[in-house]
Every structure is written in C-alpha cells, then in structure tokens.
Amino acid sequence: MFRTILKLLPALAIISAASVVSAQQRDVAPATQPPVSAVQPAAQASPPPSPVAQVPAAPAAPLATTAAPQAAPVATDNLATSPDNAARSLKSTATGGLHELSPWSMFLSADILVKAVMVGLALASLLTWTIFIAKMIELSLVRRGLRSALDKIGDARSLAEAQFALGAKGTVLSALLAAAMREARLSAGISSDAGIKERADSSFAEIVRAEARRIRLGMGLLATIGATSPFVGLFGTVWGIMNSFIGISKSQTTNLAVVAPGIAEALLATAFGLAAAIPAVIIYNHFSRVTKGYLELVGRASGAAARLLSRDLDRTHVSSHSGINSRAAE
C-alpha cells in the first residue's frame, strides 16, 4: 500500500498544479476579455492545452491587462470632445446667420432696384431734415424781425416817420411802407382817397401773397415726401418679395433659412419708406401752424401800413383845406 501511495503522489501533485493554473486563468479572463475579443475565435478553434503546458503562459496575462486601459481613455476623450465641437459649430453658424441679417449686409445683398429705392428714400429723408433745420432758422428770424418792426412803428404818425424808425431793414413791413409811399406819390393831385386806398390795398395783397409763397418754399416738397415715401418703399418691398419667390422656386425648397433673407431685404425698403414719410408729415404739420402764425403777423403789418397811408391822406386834405380857407380870409 505504501508503494501504491508513493506512485500516486506525483499524479496528485500534477493534478493540484493544474487546478491552481486553471483557477488563475479564470481570474484573469474577465480583465483580458474585451481587448482580446478579436483573438477569441482563434483560441476557441485550437485544442485545449494540457495543464502542464499552460503553466508558462500565465505571465502573459498582465500584458493584456495593461494594454486594455490604454485604449479606453481615447474613446472617452472622443465622446467628451464631440459635444463641445458640435456646440462650437452651432454657435459659429448662429453668429454667421446674425451677421448676414444685419441691415448693411441686407442692403448689399438686395436687388439693384431695391437698392435704388433705399438710396432714394435715404436722400429724401436727408432732404426732409435739411428743410426742417433751414425753415426753423428762417421762420424764427423773420418772426422776430417782424415783431420788432411792428413795435418800432407803433407810435409813428406818418409813413415817413415809420420808414425812418425802421431804417434799412429788409422786412416785409419795409416793403409795405415803400409801396404805400410810392402809391401816394403817384396819386398826387388826385382828390379821390378811395381810389388811392384801393390801389394801395392791391399792392399790399401782392406783397402778402409773395411773402406767403416765399415762406412756404420747401413745404410742398415735404408734403410730397410724406405722401409718396410709403408707396415707394412698398414698391421696393413688392419687387424684393417677388424676387424671393423666384429664388424659392429655383431652389425648390421652403426652408425658412432660405426664405428669410430675401423677405427681410424686401421689408427693409418699407422701413426706409416709413422712416422718410413719418418725419416729413410731422414737420409739414408743424410748419403749417408756424407759417399761419407768421402770415397773421404779415396781415397786421399790412393793416399798419394802410392806417399810416390813411392818416397821411387825411392830413394832406386838412392842410389843403386850411390853406384854401386862409387864402379866402385874406
């Protein structure tokens, strides 16, 4: 029996060594399975190794385990960086779209006819504000000068005295007084005061109408700009939208990103038209009120000149009657 046990000891040692090796292989297999998955079919095709041959292959397991962590960070880095790249691309796309829809870029990319409409409306708006500044200065100066002239001749007793008080100022009142003096001089020797006053009133009316035409200079242009600018802008809008629909039909797409730029360029012409028309209408209404007040002052100046002429005529008749009476008394 002792001999039998001695014969079985080497076999038992071999069996225990094989069990230890197989246990180590089972522990290492889960860590090495993902990277060597492509090699597994070849390993399965080969016959299972003997327990004794597998003993020197155990040190190769750490190489597979060390190679597996090296490939994993690359995949995680790609997953981490891909959303950032997508976000940056979307941001750049949005920024480019906003830049393309700026007013200046829309003007540059518009049709030549729409560009001409926008330029014309911009010039009309510039002309409106130029007229506004010029008329404000002119009306303020003439109103102040006419009020000052009326105050100066308030105590004058004759046309000559009024002209002396005014001096060489070129106001409308000076023109009215000069017309009265000229009519009185041309009508010397005519005893009909009514005829002289009628002719003087006719001269005064001509001077007042000429002053009204002069002071309203530029207001007709304001009225034209205010009335026609919206329709000119609408014409540019219709033309631009028509070209946009033609482009849509050619591209065969109804995507909003394709349709929006052309429509925005067309609507920009309407914005130009409104920007030119609204100030023109407001300025025209303001100047209409101011001009009406100034023409009332001109009417007061005409009445003052007519009263001075009437006094001079009455004074002439009184002096002539007193001379006749004095000669009769002698």
Account of the protein in words:
With 330 residues, the chain is mostly helical. The protein is built from ten helices and no strands. α1 (2-32) runs parallel beside α3 and α6 (159-166) packs antiparallel against α7 (172-186). The relative contact order is 0.10. Mean pLDDT is 74; it is low at 28-83 and 85-99.
- Structural class call reads mainly alpha
User: How far is the first residue's CA from the last residue's CA?
Assistant: 201 Å
Order of helices and strands: HHHHHHHHHH
Mean pLDDT across the residues is 74
Largest sheet: none
Number of domains: 2
Radius of gyration: 53 Å
What helical percentage do the residues reach? over 70%
Uncertain stretches of 5 or more adjacent residues:
28-83, 85-99
Quick summary:
The protein is 84% helix and 0% strand. By secondary structure, the chain is mainly α. It has two domains: 2-98, no CATH class; 107-329, no CATH class.
SSE diagram, text form:
Elements: H1 2-32, H2 40-45, H3 61-100, H4 103-108, H5 112-152, H6 159-166, H7 172-186, H8 193-215, H9 219-251, H10 256-329
Task: Quickly list its features.
330 residues; 10 helices; 0% strand
